Amino acid sequence: MARTVKPRRKYNRAGRAQAAAATRDAIATAARLIFRERGFAGTTMESIAAEAGYAPQTVYFHFGTKAAILKHLVEESKSERVIPLYQRSLAAEDPREQLALAVSIGRFGAEAGWDLTQVLGSARSEPELQEMVRGLESEKQWGIGNLVASLAARGHLCTGVTQARAVDLLMVLTSEELFRLLVVQRGWSPDEYETWLVAVIQRELLQRVKG
Questions:
Q1: Is 7-75's fold the same as 78-205's?
Q2: Which one of 6, 70, 121, 123 has the minimum C-beta count within 10 Å?
C-alpha cells in the first residue's frame, strides 16, 4: 500500500508562497513604472495589471487599491543601510563626520525613493497617503533634530545659527527633491551630489576654527 508523502504538501505550500511573492513583486515593479510616468491620479489598477501582465482581478486580490501598492513601495524602498549610519552619526566625535554621515543617509533615501516621494506628494486626495507623508517627515525631522542637538551641545554650530534653523537647512538640503533636480534632472552623479552637499552643509552649519 502506497504511503502518503507529507513533505510534498509542505513543498507545495512553500511553492505557492513563493509564487505569490513573485506576483506581488511583479505588480509592485509595474506600478512603480506607471506611477512615475503618469502620477498617482493618472494611474489605474487596470494600467498596472496591463504593465505587469496580470488580470486586474489579480492586482486587486494582492493589494486592493493603488494607494496600498504605493504604501508597499515606500516601505520596501527604505534602505537598511540608514540605521547603522544614523547610529554612527550620533556616536561620532568629529562634527564634520557627523554631517557627512547625515548626507549619506539622505543620499541613500533619495536614491531609493525620490520618485515615490513625488508620487506621494501628488496623492492629495488620499488621506492615508498624506498621513504617511506627514509620518515620514516627522521621522526625518526627529532624526535630524537629535543630530543637531548633539552638535549644539558641544558648541559646534556656527554663531548665529539656531538649532531650529540648522534643522530647517538639513531638512531642505537633504530632501529627495534636491536630489531629483541635481542627479535625475541635471545629470550629476550621486557621488558628485554627495561630495558637494557635504561641503555646503559643513560650511553653513559648523563653527569655523581659527588657526
A1: no
A2: 6
pLDDT band per the 50, 70, 90 thresholds, residue 38: very high
**Where does the pLDDT of residue 4 fall: very low under 50, low under 70, confident under 90, or very high at 90 and above?**
low
Q: Higher pLDDT residue, 166 or 11?
A: 166
Q: Contact 109/176 with Cβ under 8 angstroms?
A: yes
CATH architecture of 7-75: Orthogonal Bundle (1.10)
Domain 78-205: which CATH number of 1.10.287, 2.40.160, 1.10.357, 1.10.4030: 1.10.357
Domain extent listing, the chain: 7-75, 78-205
Residue 92 backbone phi and psi in degrees, to 5:
-65, 140
pLDDT at 3: 57
